[in-house]
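Q: what sequence does this backbone want?
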């Protein structure tokens, strides 16, 4: 586990001239080169970890808007017939749109849950790859 941070530190030291060991001390420069030399390729386990891809936000269905409630609906005398019928028709349209929205929302939710599950599997895979 200590090997990883030392390799990163050696790469930083060898690539940054201000942080590199002074050339007057060859003994100090030798360990930095020794650490940088055994650049090991990524383990085969790390190569098999697949990065999860979230569902596109463009796939997210839009919830239908509620119809505007007429002010006369709450009044004591109520709404005139035409206004009540118009609101009733708008509610029927909303209900139809809501019925069509539900399966789309459930499908998108399934994609989101699959992404969460894949993210967890990816994190577990990466953690196991670091331990090997």
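A:
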């Amino acid at each position: 586990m200590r090997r990883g941070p030392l390799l990163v530190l050696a790469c930083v030291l060898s690539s940054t001239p201000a942080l590199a060991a002074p050339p007057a001390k060859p003994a100090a420069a030798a360990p930095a080169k020794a650490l940088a030399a055994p650049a090991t390729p990524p383990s085969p386990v790390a190569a098999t970890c697949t990065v999860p891809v979230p569902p596109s936000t463009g796939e997210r269905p839009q919830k239908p808007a509620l119809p505007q409630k007429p002010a006369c609906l709450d009044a004591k005398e109520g709404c005139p017939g035409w206004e009540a019928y118009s609101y009733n028709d708008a509610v029927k349209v909303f209900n139809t749109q809501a019925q069509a929205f539900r399966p789309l929302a459930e499908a998108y939710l399934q994609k989101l849950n699959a992404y969460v599950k894949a993210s967890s599997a990816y994190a577990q895979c990466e953690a196991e790859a670091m331990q090997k």
